[in-house]
Fold:
Amino acid sequence: MSTHYHGSEQEIKALDAYIKLSRAAESVNIAVNAHLHQYQLTVSQFGVMEAIYHLGPLQIGELGQKILKSSGNMTLVIDNLQKRELVQRQQKENDRRCTEIHLTEAGTTLIEQILPRHVAQVVETFALLSAEEQTQLGALCRRLGKQQNR
Structure:
C-alpha cells in the first residue's frame, strides 16, 4: 500500500518509501524471530544474549546502543534474563562503578542452540533477493541509518 497523502511529489515519494520500508522491516522481523517464543525469549532478550555472545561482556548502556533500546528498557530485559539465570551482572574489577553483563553457562548453551536456526531463518528470508540486491539493500539501509546519527 502506498500513501494516500496528497502533497508534493517529494512528500509522496518519501512517505511511500517509508511505508514500504516499515512494512518490509516488520514482515522480516516476524519471519526471522518467530521461533524465539519457543525459548520464551523476546527479540530484545535474544539481541542482548547474541550481542554478549559475539562481543563479550558489555555494560547496559552499550547493550542498549547495540540493540537500539533505552537504558530503562534494558534494565527490565536484563532483570528478566537474570531471573532465568541466562546472564549475570558483574562489577568491573578495575572500576567498581561499572557493571558488565555476562552470559552464564546456561545462557551460552541456549544462544548456541538458537543461533544456527536463527541464521538459517535470516538466510531463508533474504533468499528472495540476489546477493547483489542484499548488498545494495544493506548499503541503502546503512546510509539511511547513519543519517539519523548525526
Notes: DSSP finds six helices and three strands in the chain. The radius of gyration is 19 Å.
